[in-house]
């Protein structure tokens, strides 16, 4: 852990005197439109100073989302799953059971209006969480997200294990990250994930680790606090 943290130190978010971030998780599967409505409402309240910053953990039913840079040709199987057009950055991705989605609503007015550093900090957060399972996650200068090397598949082979897609309004962030714990990886074949061909997608369980969603949540929360500061437990978000 110390070695990983030292390597990431220049990318981690500077600690602030901000109040603890409200941390919550929803049981069961949360519809995508419902989640977006809840995030937009909370982000507006945060911007107005009427609610604390928030991280909201969810699982979605099987679906694809298309970010603002999504290309039509990257939706390989358009009839396979529902497709949601969304305002987050990035291209196509898959969400579904067994994947932990963390929606991150932080106030960059207080923390520093630097989007590049914020994305790097999200990557650092995921890398620190993976390190708790002895998985070495890595970032790539030309590809957003977190990657793991797969030497068993040949020299230079690597798979994506976590994705990042954010939106910012009035310098409050929403959308966030997704970590593959034990999703149905076959659904990624219906798209070109994040517009990146030539690489695979993996999960913690696919790597041979018997990790539960609870295990992943504990790791994510501990790593989040290292990067962004303290959190406190709160209720799950609800749409307006």
Question: How would you describe the overall organization of this protein?
Answer:
With 240 residues, the chain is α/β, with parallel strands linked by helices. The chain is built from 5 helices and 12 strands. Strands 1, 2, 6, 7, 8, 9, 10, 11 and 12 form a 9-stranded mixed sheet that branches. Strand 1, helix 2 and strand 2 (54-59) form a beta-alpha-beta unit. Helix 4 packs across helix 5.
Which features characterize this protein?
240 residues, alpha/beta, nine-stranded mixed β-sheet, 5 helices, 12 strands, 29% strand, globular
Poorly predicted segments: none
- What share of residues is helical? 25-40%
Judged by helices, strands and strand pairing, the structural class is alpha/beta
Major beta-sheet overview: 9 strands, mixed
Order of helices and strands: HEHEEEEEHHEEEEEHE
Give the arrangement of secondary structure elements:
Elements: H1 2-8, E1 21-29, H2 32-47, E2 54-59, E3 63-66, E4 83-85, E5 92-95, E6 99-105, H3 108-111, H4 115-131, E7 138-140, E8 143-149, E9 158-169, E10 172-180, E11 200-201, H5 213-228, E12 231-233
Parallel strand pairs: 1-2, 1-12, 3-4, 9-11
Antiparallel strand pairs: 2-6, 3-5, 6-10, 7-8, 8-9, 9-10
Summary, kept brief:
This protein has 240 residues and is of the alpha/beta class. The protein contains 5 helices and 12 strands. The protein has helices at 2-8, 32-47, 108-111, 115-131, 213-228, and strands at residues 21-29, 54-59, 63-66, 83-85, 92-95, 99-105, 138-140, 143-149, 158-169, 172-180, 200-201, 231-233.
